[in-house]
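Sorry, explain these tokens?

***
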Amino acid sequence: MKIICVIPARYASTRLPGKPLADIAGKPMIVRVYERVLNATKPAEVIAAVDDERVYEAVVKAGGKAIMTAKNHPTGTDRLAEVAQKCPDADVIINVQGDEPLIDPQIIDDLAQEFLNDENLKMATVKTPMKEEEKAKPGNVKVITDKNGYALYFSRSLIPYPREDTGVVVYKHIGIYGYRRDFLLQYAKMQPTPLEQTESLEQLRALENGYKIKVIATDKHFVGVDTKEDLEEVNKIYQEMEKNK
């Protein structure tokens, strides 16, 4: 089974224009993400899926592999599917967002292992226990699962609502996905669904169409980059990492 890791990176970020090239301790963010992903052992190949020549050049200059994709993709999944079309020998595609410069490589390997364990698995993602201060923020997506670890729902609202204190853990969804290639191509062709559009959460499209999403748990927490404040925090973390080398 061939597993590849794809990093979609869109240049025209609304809140942080040019985000893939944002400096993190002397290197562009896309390069930092690429370097982290290379530390995973199960993917046979890592590809940055980019829409801007400057981002392409940054990846190639750092020794990485990049593929130019269309600028007008409405979602990251569409960009991912374009790469999947160009990689017919891939069986499983792991999607790591281009704004996760602190992604833990072990999570990538753990997600890949789920597909090695279950030949019928179509889609999988990751959750981690949510910190108290994260619960009220719509940007922190919550997920609830059944007893077998399959997603019941994803929401920007707090789920489950704690009407009774039963000790149920609130989980934060980490935006890393694994797909069986044939399912990814099918999924990208599905029409947007009502819940997906209401919550602005693309993964709900799979649930609304009756497909299962396996959700594995981790205790890892790391900062993604959505704002200038996030970028400053990540820079501080990297500077500390550099000092402790």
